[in-house]
């Protein structure tokens, strides 16, 4: 069942760095336009954890479903990297729990009122009121798109 707010968390994963997975990082940049001759120069080995995970103990991953954040580049089936150690700032994309349900939205304060704002005009913003159970679980730092 699709959530009323348009995007829900379907799975949650903890970050667990048991082993290091390093892959070659080539010094040549690959053009998105016309092909160019490739270089075989490897700069060094790349561990994606170095670039994607700033606070390992406070990082988790979520898989999302829905389309309320498509204009922010978040699509159904994506995996989000979420950092609980980051301070929440206005305009961050966050994982929030509202009345017991997890959602992904942009957090905004407008005229001293707190909103969770979708990035799809087909969906309505959620005004957070004192009567609601509300908690920000973390700030989204990266989006991983599966190849389609």
Verbal overview:
This protein is mainly beta. The protein folds into two domains: 7-15 and 57-144, Umud Fragment, subunit A (Ribbon), CATH 2.10.109.10; 22-51, no CATH class. 3% of the residues lie in helices and 45% in strands. The protein is built from one helix and ten strands, in the order E-E-E-H-E-E-E-E-E-E-E. The protein has one helix at 48-52; strands at residues 7-14, 22-26, 42-47, 59-66, 79-83, 93-98, 101-110, 113-117, 126-128, 134-144. Strands 1-4-5-10-6-7-8-9 form an eight-stranded antiparallel sheet, with no helix packed on it. It has a two-stranded antiparallel sheet with strand order 2-3. The protein is globular, with a radius of gyration of 18 Å.
Summarize the model shown:
This protein has 148 residues and is mostly beta strands.
Structural topology:
Blueprint: E1 7-14, E2 22-26, E3 42-47, H1 48-52, E4 59-66, E5 79-83, E6 93-98, E7 101-110, E8 113-117, E9 126-128, E10 134-144
Antiparallel strand pairs: 1-4, 2-3, 4-5, 5-10, 6-7, 6-10, 7-8, 8-9
């Amino acid at each position: 069942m699709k959530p009323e707010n348009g995007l829900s968390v379907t799975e949650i994963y903890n970050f667990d760095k048991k082993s290091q997975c390093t892959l070659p990082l080539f010094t040549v940049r690959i053009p998105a336009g016309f092909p160019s001759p490739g270089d075989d120069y490897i700069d060094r080995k790349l561990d994606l954890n170095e670039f994607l995970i700033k606070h390992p103990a406070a990082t988790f991953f979520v898989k999302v479903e829905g389309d309320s954040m498509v204009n922010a580049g978040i699509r159904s089936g994506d995996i989000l990297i979420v950092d609980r150690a980051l301070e929440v700032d206005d305009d961050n994309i966050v994982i929030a729990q509202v009345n017991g349900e997890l959602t992904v939205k942009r957090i905004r304060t407008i005229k001293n009122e707190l909103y969770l704002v979708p990035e799809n005009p087909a969906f309505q913003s959620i005004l957070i009121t004192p009567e609601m159970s509300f908690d920000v679980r973390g700030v989204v730092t990266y989006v991983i798109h599966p190849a389609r």
